[in-house]
Amino acid sequence: MSRNLFAKLEESINNRKDTYLLTITDYPDNKILGAKALLWPDGGLCTENSLLPQDVKDLLIAQCSRLVAKKRSGAVKFVWKDSIIECFAEYFPAPLHLIVAGAGHVCEPVAEMGRMLGFFVTVIDDREEFANRERFPFANEVVCQSYLRYFRDVDISEKTYILLLTRGHKYDVLSLNELLKRNSQAGYIGMIGSRRRISGVFKELQQDFPDESFDNLYTPVGLDIGAETPAEIAVSIMAEILKVKNQKSGNSLSTQIKKYAKMGFHEGAGKWTKCSS
Question: Do residues 121 and 95 touch, judged by C-beta distance below 8 A?
């Protein structure tokens, strides 16, 4: 792959765009064999081989449309000038977007863990002394901006995971007001805070959104693991996000094993069978 094409692929991933890397894997003409291109779901195509004819480009876009619709990698074949062209399309899904609003002490380990788990991590705070690269070297993006303005304009989809770790409930209310006005809904919104703070937020929001169910708002944020330190709280939060993302129960994996243990792991006890020495 050329440096230019690699740079465009990297740019697409950083911009959270689904991208397909196309490679011509079989064709009699060596000038075309091995040619690579990038394809985007909107039909945009970028190729590194200037010799690739426009009608071949059009055929590539059309033939790969079914893979784009299913969001998966795969091979396609089509005939051009009485010869078969085979192409492999490798799917690079847009990374999930983790937005952490509030660059306090808990945000630091959350940003680091989020990056380790493959999220595109954005840290947003309205204070320059908090929202800076020195404090968040692992974040993909650090934004110093008001919460209201940021959440009014940022792209939101089911691939967006939002954490509100702000320094006061008024900032939570401002953020949620903007988020609830949006046509697109985030996959997850978590809000940190005490019962009193949470109660105050809901009370204010219900004045403007009396019919809102708040189904995708998780508060207090995180799983109940007795977390106290910022790092422990970060583990609790990211575990809950993974639970929601993967649509799992969040129960201990040993629960099911203990049930089989009481049955003696005998033949027919679910998937478990007693091992023989």
Answer: no
